[in-house]
Structures are given as structure tokens and as C-alpha cells.
Amino acid sequence: MIAIGCDHGGFELKTEIIRHLEHRRLEYKDFGCNSTEAVDYPEYARAVAEAVVSGEADKGILICGTGIGISIAANKIKGIRAAVCTDCFTAEATRLHNDANILAMGGRVVGPGLAVKITDTFLDTEFSNEERHRNRIGKIED
Ligand code: RB5
């Protein structure tokens, strides 16, 4: 299951991403928000992050205006490795090298076409599981 959430700056892009997840018949849970009315992104970051660390969700997607605030908030939760991606190269690399478990994007930064490609790249790339990357992730956890 994929946990997805946003603030008002990410609501429109989240709607596009959910449409794509449905097209791919991927299971997801939408943690809000549900409109473009202003909300506080840390609340949605926390909800999605807790779903990921608890194992309820396999991965998370968080969207705010830039992807930055919501990723900073998510990364405060132990076990979360949230990566802001604005291109497919970084989406692939953060899965291969960092085993990122949350993709963060900016609704005011990337258009829906690119965001869908970034999402597919993130979801479809497995962690490399190479020792040097496992060691580095272990040091982050420590
Ligand atoms: C909201 O205006 C905006 O600050 C938020 O969506 C995000 O970009 C914060 O990093």
C-alpha cells in the first residue's frame, strides 16, 4: 500500500498522482488534505510517515508547494528517509542508494507529466542492497 498526503500547495498534484495510481491499480491510502484551503504540512507529513514506519504502508508520497517543508517534517520521524525529487535521475538514485521510503515533490515545482514519471521511477526502482549503501543508511539510523 502507498500512503499519500499533501498540504494545500500539493493538493492539485496529489489529485493527479492518485489518478495515476488508480490507473496502475496500485493500492493507496489518502491521508489528506482534501482541498486547496491552507493547512499545516507537518500534520500530513506525520500521518504518512507514521503509516510507513508502522508497516501499514510500503512507501509514502508527500506533496507540498516545494516538497521541502513536508520532507523536512517527515524526516523527523525515525526510520523515515524522505527525498525531494524534481527529476527521474534523483528518484532512481534515492531508491538505489538511500532506500528512500517517502517521495516528496513540489506541486509548484514539477508539472503533472513529470511528476507521474518521477513517481513511477521511485515506485519501480528497488534498493540496490549493496553493502556500502547499507552501511551508510545504518549510520543515518544510528
Ligand atoms: C505553503 O504555502 C508552502 O509553504 C508549503 O506548501 C511548502 O512549500 C513548504 O515547504
Descriptive notes:
This protein has 142 residues and is α/β, with parallel strands linked by helices. The protein has helices at residues 11-23, 41-53, 68-74, 88-98, 112-124, 131-141, and strands spanning 2-6, 28-30, 59-64, 82-84, 102-106. The chain has a 5-stranded parallel β-sheet, sandwiched between helices. Strand 4 (82-84), helix 4 and strand 5 (102-106) form a beta-alpha-beta unit. Helix 1 (11-23) crosses helix 5 (112-124), helix 2 packs across helix 3 and helix 4 runs parallel beside helix 5. The structure holds D-ribose. D-ribose (RB5) binds at residues 7, 9, 41, 64-66, 68-69.
Largest sheet: 5 strands, parallel
| Terminal-residue CA separation | 27 Å
- List all distinct small molecules, including ions and cofactors, that are bound in this structure: D-ribose
Radius of gyration: 14 Å
Mean pLDDT: 98
Sequence stretches where pLDDT stays below 50 over 5 or more residues: none
List how many beta strands DSSP finds.
Answer: 5
Strand content: 15-25%
Query: What overall geometry do the principal axes of the alpha carbons give?
Result: globular
User: What order do the helices and strands follow?
Assistant: EHEHEHEHEHH
Helicity, as a percent range: 40-55%
**Strand neighbour order, sheet with most strands:** 2-1-3-5-4
Decide which structural class fits the backbone.
alpha/beta
Please tally the helical runs, counting DSSP H or I stretches of 4 or more residues.
6
